[in-house]
Amino acid sequence: MKFFSFWRSLASFRVRCGLYLKGLTPSEVIDVNLMQGKQREEAFRKINPMMAIPALIENDGNVLFESLAILEYLEETHPNPPLLPKTPKARARVRALSQIVACDTHPLIVPRVREFLAHEYKVDEAGVQKWGHHWHEAAFKALEANLSGSKETGRYCHGDQITIADICLAGNAVGAFYFKCDLTPFPTVRRIVDLCWQNEAFARAHPLKQPGAPAAA
User: Fold this and answer.
1) Model pTM?
2) 96 and 36: one domain?
3) How far apart are CA 24 and CA 21, in angstroms?
């Protein structure tokens, strides 16, 4: 399979982490440099007209896109180890926690949004940073309340096994680093994130461990 990715992309991290947790390694990783606008080039637009990464092309040519959809596809086609719990209520909770990150937060801070703020509304770099910080902090407040207030929370977001929610949470913590959002006020979030980075798949998938990533970002 071909994996279209970029080191800084948090959505790419989510899929990369899911692949590694499932014991899967893409045969080819293709860099799509978001900072250089490579996602808008015609060759990639044919793969994903939304001009967003990640994208995954299987050996039969089937194109997959949108990180949560790809993760659920991997879950259905490679069920072990499971990344979703068994019961409908538990699955709904994991999906909801995941979507706080992947649907309510991350879309607000991606390059196309930051560029629009700067180019169309003349928001300076400090203002764009403040924007990103605000939405990360809002997400962490909601996540902390959900996680700390639920008996379903265990070592990880849901019980004692890694789920898609943990993948999303860890990725959001990387975004918090980019936007200088302190996790100290969110002890449950921070505890789970720290535990995730001890896992080999998470550590291997970390954005700063990818080709092209700077020594410090």
Assistant:
1) 0.96
2) no
3) 8
Q: Based on the domain organization, do 72 and 115 belong to the same domain?
A: no
Phi first, then psi, for residue 106 (nearest 5°) are -55, -40
Q: What is the pLDDT along the chain (217 residues), one digit of tens a residue?
A: 999 999 999 999 999 999 999 999 999 999 999 999 999 999 999 999 999 999 999 999 999 999 999 999 999 999 999 999 999 999 999 999 999 999 999 999 999 999 999 999 999 999 999 999 999 999 999 999 999 999 999 999 999 999 999 999 999 999 999 999 999 999 999 999 999 999 999 999 999 999 989 874 4
**Residue type at position 188:** T
Paired sense of beta strands 28-31 and 63-65, if any: unpaired
| Parent domain of 74 | 2-81
| Residue after which a domain boundary falls, among 47, 81, 115 | 81
Give the Cα-Cα-Cα angle 30, 135, 113 (nearest 5 degrees).
50
139: CATH:
1.20.1050.10
Shared domain for 98 and 160, answered yes or no, is: yes
Instruction: Kindly report the CATH number assigned to the domain that includes residue 72.
Output: 3.40.30.10
Closest CA to 32 of 59, 52, 46, 17: 52
